[in-house]
Q: What sequence folds into this?
């Protein structure tokens, strides 16, 4: 009996020790303790600054960034500059975290830098970024619609394919709903940042908030979730109270304007936003303006209101002949112009959650049940737009050219593939019977209209 008792006690101690060891190992894992969710963005001018943000679980709340002009030699210790990050604590659904950020300034244009972040003996790997030239020269960037759901399993493949095919992209633009619940880390930010991993450490992000980036844990509100400002460092040149939500970034010869169409603001603040937007459009002296906001200008999901959502904004974009508006929200693909030749409105989706489409009259190219990313090539007098599937196949393409007088011309690419117009998974269960019943007839009418 004593022998059995001793064996039981010994086994219990072993189990307890192993369980404690597993927890200790987990608490001290790279994810928990070392800097991670490292990403680049811009708070100030891309040609002479670079914003970096990251997260730690360390007991020491301080964190630092070290940076140096890049060299092929690994022996650059003597030239390293080091600054302390701005650090804030935040308790989320998965516990207490420290969020850190630093805006490196007074950098040289068109220069590659190496950097790492951390503290004491816990540092990230060295990564590189390159400042903008500030000159008028050809370049490209990537644009993504909603990633939002099933990010780890399926959304990740779109981001990775886009980066693998375009390692020289200057930045990645996200048109909102990067995640599903903006106030939560689990299955949200904890999946999004690892989805592209190291690429976010080398290629800057420009993002506009979607409705899901607002305080939507159990119920949606229009207040931005704290994790938006903790995770990103965007420009603070927008209207008061909308810093890092509504803003613009000037990269070489283009201006990218973000509008937070989910913001909780008063009618007076909306008017202020309208005035701010007109000023941002009117005063820019570069070659091209891109406007991004989350909600497509008109509803396109089959069960949504197809009316124009922002008529005053639409009129302003048409008045200043914005070439392209890049949006999401509808969980499908659509491209076309509305009541004027410009802007060209694009709606796209990068993630696997898809909606069935209503074939609105303004849509010239549509797509459903398909994951996409977009390459946008910029030069002084020409924009080239290419939408590709997650397999890297061209799905849509067009060009916008500008003559010596500034007049723009649109031209769709020839020999585009057949449109993917498959109803979404569980179509019959998710939509009213009438919307299901009329789908095929509506699709046929849409395809016939395009032939005319």
A:
């Amino acid at each position: 009996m004593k022998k059995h008792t001793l064996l039981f006690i010994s086994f219990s101690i072993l189990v307890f020790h192993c369980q404690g060891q597993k927890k200790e190992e987990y608490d001290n894992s790279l994810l928990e303790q070392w800097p991670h969710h490292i990403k680049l963005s811009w708070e100030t001018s891309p040609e002479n600054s670079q914003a970096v943000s990251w997260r730690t679980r360390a007991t020491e709340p301080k964190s630092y960034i070290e940076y140096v002009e890049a060299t092929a030699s690994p022996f650059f210790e003597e030239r390293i500059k080091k600054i302390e990050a701005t650090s804030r604590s935040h308790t989320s659904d998965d516990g207490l975290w420290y969020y850190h950020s630093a805006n490196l300034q007074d950098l040289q244009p068109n220069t590659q830098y190496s950097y790492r972040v951390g503290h004491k003996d816990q540092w990230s790997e060295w990564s590189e970024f390159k400042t903008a030239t500030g000159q008028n020269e050809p370049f490209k960037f990537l644009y993504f619609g909603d990633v939002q759901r099933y990010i780890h399993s399926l959304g990740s493949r779109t981001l990775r394919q886009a980066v693998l095919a375009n390692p020289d992209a200057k930045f990645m633009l996200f048109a909102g709903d990067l995640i599903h619940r903006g106030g939560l880390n689990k299955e949200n930010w904890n999946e999004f940042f690892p989805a592209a991993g190291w690429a976010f450490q080398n290629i800057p992000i420009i993002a506009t908030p979607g409705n899901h980036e607002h305080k939507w844990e159990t119920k949606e509100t229009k207040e931005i979730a704290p994790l938006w400002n903790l995770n990103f460092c965007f420009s603070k040149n927008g209207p008061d109270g909308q810093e890092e939500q509504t803003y613009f970034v000037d990269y070489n010869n283009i201006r990218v304007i973000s509008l937070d169409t989910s913001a909780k603001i008063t009618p007076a603040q909306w008017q202020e936003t309208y005035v701010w937007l007109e000023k941002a459009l009117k005063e820019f002296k570069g070659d091209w303006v891109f406007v991004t906001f989350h909600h497509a200008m008109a509803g396109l999901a089959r069960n949504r209101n197809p009316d124009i959502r922002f008529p005053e904004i639409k009129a302003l974009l048409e008045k200043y002949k914005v070439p392209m508006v890049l949006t999401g929200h509808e969980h499908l693909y659509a491209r076309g112009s509305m009541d004027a030749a410009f802007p060209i409105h694009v709606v796209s989706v990068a993630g696997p959650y898809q909606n069935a489409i209503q074939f609105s009259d303004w849509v010239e190219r549509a797509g459903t049940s398909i994951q996409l990313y977009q390459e946008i090539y910029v030069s002084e007098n020409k924009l080239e737009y290419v939408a590709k599937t997650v397999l890297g196949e061209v799905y849509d393409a067009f060009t916008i050219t500008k003559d010596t007088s500034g007049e723009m011309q649109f031209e769709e690419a020839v020999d585009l593939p057949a449109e993917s117009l498959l109803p979404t998974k569980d179509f019959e269960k998710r939509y009213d019977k009438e919307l299901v019943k009329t789908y095929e007839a509506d699709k046929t009418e849409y395809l016939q209209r395009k032939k005319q």
